[in-house]
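Methods — Computational structure assignment.
A single polypeptide chain was analysed. Its primary sequence is given first, followed by the predicted tertiary structure written as structure tokens.
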Amino acid sequence: MKIRAGYDIAFDCPQPTPMILLVSVHASRIGDLLSPQHITFDPPLPTRTYEDPFGNACTRIVAPAGRVRFSADFLVADSGRPDEVAPDAPQVAVQDLPDDTLVYLLGSRYCDTEHLAEQAWSLFAGTPPGWARVQAICDYVHDHLTFDYMQARSTRTAAEGHSERLGVCRDFAHLAITFCRCMNIPARYCTGYLGDIGVPKDPQPMDFSAWFEAYLGGRWYTFDARHNVPRIGRILVARGRDATDVAISTSFGRADLANFTVITDEVE
């Protein structure tokens, strides 16, 4: 399967503004690129790319005063297979977890485990540990939250989402991640492309999507509490503790969003 992916994003800046962009496909999918994912800037800008502690490709720029636009349009090869399902994947005891997974047990900016630990244990202590427990968490979050683009809020934590019972894909991911961590299951936040492949077309404008990965049976598995069914065609851009680590853009000064278009379509 071939997937066309890309974006066209613009900001208006009243003065030169340093920015960090996470818009490049993750290193784990570089080998699947069928065309370059070159970022085009208008006006042309000097850039520098570095790898952050989570293995994400970050691009540094200084946006000039006025409007800056950055875009890309590329092709990616995909297996066409849905997310893997492994019902027998066991939960790994904390003392046996690899060192590099332990950070994904800790609370973070949007995954406020300290506020939801008691709730998590009351809800999920009786579920079988391992895959079934993570799936039970996804089922609960999927049913508990109502998806509503108009109610998006960049400051909403997992506990607030649980209380308000609404949000967008990042809120579904944050709440599921938080419950997993409360139950001693490492979980990390993912962002990337997810088109309407193999499912009815969503009339809403395309956006980057959020899901999460849980560490079970010695490896990471993909889960998606918002859709709560295996999906086809995920293209990973970045991973981190929560949305703070994988923001598409982080500006160090005022930057007003002027355009935001995302492309994710199967190529016939």
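Note: The longest strand covers residues 2-13.
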